[in-house]
Amino acid sequence: MPKVSVVIPMFNAAATIRRALDSVLAQTERDFEVLVVDDASSDGCGALVEACPDPRVRLIRQPHGFVSAARNRGVREASAGLVSFLDADDEYRPEFLEAILRLLARWPEAGAYACSFSVVDRRGVARAMRFRALPPFPWEGLIPDYFESAIGLQPVCSSAVAVPKRVLEKLGGFREERLPGEDIELWFRIALESPIAFSSVHGAVYHRDVANSLADTLPALDGYILVDTAHKALAEGRVPAGSERFVEGLIDKQLVATAAQLVVAGRGAEARAKLREIRTTFFARDVLYWRLLALLPAAVTRRAAGLKRAVMGRLA
Length: 316
Known about the structure:
- This protein is of the alpha/beta class and 316 residues long.
- The chain is 42% helix and 18% strand.
- Helix 11 runs antiparallel to helix 12 (284-294).
- The protein is globular, with a radius of gyration of 19 Å.
- It starts with a strand and ends with a helix.
């Protein structure tokens, strides 16, 4: 049985899947399997995976069910007790799995194991991430308060994390409703029950320079899936003591993101209504920014040069 099962959900990723696969095969840790779940692609990327000669790589085909269904299928097929995830347009750094297994050995009680990562923007420029309420590099340990850290840049990236299969099975995996933020909603549910271990080792590269990046194709107009989960956790008293205001801030973070997308869509009145739901002051400047933009006529916001890019830049 391999130490780690790497699950790669794939949909029309012919341009990037070889890079993702090569990054897994280049790991310093060699005991793993790779499960590429092809979500009914039509661009030939499945054939590229089948051409890989490494016996640790397996292609699984399924009817189109979106990314959460593909990840959940990979989890069900996984042979290892630890499942790591990698999006087909991202890549691991060579030491990623080694760092993840080191975290597992030191903190077996954790519900998830994450590494730091860098982001490649639309200009092809890579930048390292800085996280709120985490000790600086070099550091490994249990995140002191995941909910506080997530108020800033999300410290758990879907291409830089591994989760014990037993945890995924207990929580039901990724929710499969087609709403954005299904990955951060799962990390949130994990953090309600268990600590999350983190390494400041630069373990992965998250690409925003891909034309059909998930970040570009998923609108937030119907809201983020995390909001209802967080409201329910607060109402049921399941949020750890002292973290309640941070969870309220996470709700507001998603409300700002939804309002921003509504502004881009020319739906200013709805955006202003969404901003009125905000209760904390964590994002006061962002609220003011989008409230002012929401006052502009829809025709102006639709024509505003670079507005879409500004949205994604601010939300990143």
